[in-house]
Amino acid sequence: MSKILVTGGTGFIGSHTVVELHNAGYTPVIIDNLSNSNIQILDQIAKITGVRPEFHEFDLCDEAKTHAFVQANPDITGIIHFAASKAVGESVEQPLKYYHNNFFSLINLLNAYRGKPINFVFSSSCTVYGEPDTLPVTEAAPVKQAASPYGNTKQISEEILAEISAAYGNYNTIALRYFNPVGAHSSALIGELPLGVPQNLLPFITQTAIGKREKLTVFGGDYDTPDGSCIRDYIHVVDLAKAHVAAIRLLEKGNPNGNYDVFNVGTGKGYSVLEAIAAFEKASGQKLNYVIGPRRDGDIIRVWGDVTKSTAQLGWKAELGIDEMMASAWAWEKYLQENPIG
Ligand code: UD1
């Protein structure tokens, strides 16, 4: 069975993708430096799949180790590259950390594969669209000036992939532009594991509901949206994981669009923060303690994706809705309370 390298494979989206690769008959191999994840996730994956995935702990910014790994593993046919720093606020405070981690790891990996045929799936973000002019936003929409160094690393990485795919014959690449990944595996054995105070909405909601946080602050209630709160396209992490398997399959088959392509990975439907809270309360049976607070700097008001291209050409479509997203995120939070990780 084809071996697929999953960098950042113990992280939130990475771990779910490892499970879906296994389910699709691939052999996932993980590289992770554990900077934002926990080694116990390997055991959790094993509880789901029955197989503890092959794991290599090192930092892809280490060029010598990256080259040595590639030399020692000639049977890897595809890469899904998640490993990157991803906190928007931290990237504004520490831009060099973001440019160092996100670019050196990508460039080392690409360099190590020079001349070797390789399928490469890159973890990108709808942040490249900024505040879109039209909704739902399609892949053809202009890439806007990045609002943060984190967003800039995603934009520039996409450009790097487009250019290397055009210049050299051996790279077949797809960038997946994720909307807002939430939820957890149906087993409640893996899910999002934020270090410290969560920056993202869903872990903040579940941690508030379970009593780890006193209350959720809704960042802004006076936006030009039906209920005044921001709108996002939330996507179940298991659906998102399956999109990566679909991307690998398309690259294996040969992408008729050429050797560099981008796809939106969302549901095509937007929910406001207040609607997300209501969906959580319904799915969990918990009343959430929240207040409407000031706006957060740099927030996009509304964004949701057009998924026509991914449905038609990637052969993938999100299957799980907001109720499953909320119920699974809540089941995972409750699991963590009984079985702490880290
Ligand atoms: C952001 C980035 C995205 C990145 C992701 C990774 C932008 C536009 N988006 O997504 O590219 O991949 O982080 O972490 O930069 N909210 C609250 N209270 C909270 C937390 C969030 O009201 O305590 C609201 C936000 O204002 C937003 C929504 O919930 O409207 C989702 O926020 P979040 O989960 O942080 O994701 P994004 O900002 O959409």
List keywords for this structure.
single chain, 342 residues, alpha/beta, Rossmann fold, 7-stranded parallel sheet, two-stranded parallel sheet, 40% helix, 18% strand, binds uridine-diphosphate-N-acetylglucosamine
Task: Summarize the helices and strands and which ones pair or pack.
Elements: E1 3-7, H1 12-23, E2 27-32, H2 41-49, E3 54-57, H3 63-72, E4 76-81, H4 88-93, H5 95-112, E5 118-125, H6 149-167, E6 171-178, E7 180-182, H7 201-209, E8 216-219, E9 231-232, E10 234-236, H8 237-253, E11 260-265, E12 271-272, H9 273-284, E13 290-293, H10 308-314, H11 322-338
Uridine-diphosphate-N-acetylglucosamine binds at residues 86, 88, 125, 127, 147, 151, 180, 199-201, 204, 216-219, 230, 232, 273, 296, 299-300.
Characterization of this structure:
With 342 residues, the chain is of the alpha/beta class. The chain has a domain at 3-182 and 234-266: NAD(P)-binding Rossmann-like Domain (Rossmann fold), CATH 3.40.50.720. It is 40% helix and 18% strand. The chain has 11 helices and 13 strands. The chain has helices at 12-23, 41-49, 63-72, 88-93, 95-112, 149-167, 201-209, 237-253, 273-284, 308-314, 322-338, and strands at residues 3-7, 27-32, 54-57, 76-81, 118-125, 171-178, 180-182, 216-219, 231-232, 234-236, 260-265, 271-272, 290-293. A 7-stranded parallel sheet has the order 3-2-1-4-5-6-11, sandwiched between helices. A two-stranded parallel sheet has the order 7-10. Helix 2 (41-49) links the parallel strand 2 and strand 3. Helix 1 (12-23) crosses helix 8 (237-253) and helix 3 (63-72) runs parallel beside helix 5 (95-112). The two termini are 33 Å apart. 49% of the residues are buried. The mean pLDDT is 97. The structure holds uridine-diphosphate-N-acetylglucosamine. Residues 86, 88, 125, 127, 147, 151, 180, 199-201, 204, 216-219, 230, 232, 273, 296, 299-300 line the site of uridine-diphosphate-N-acetylglucosamine.
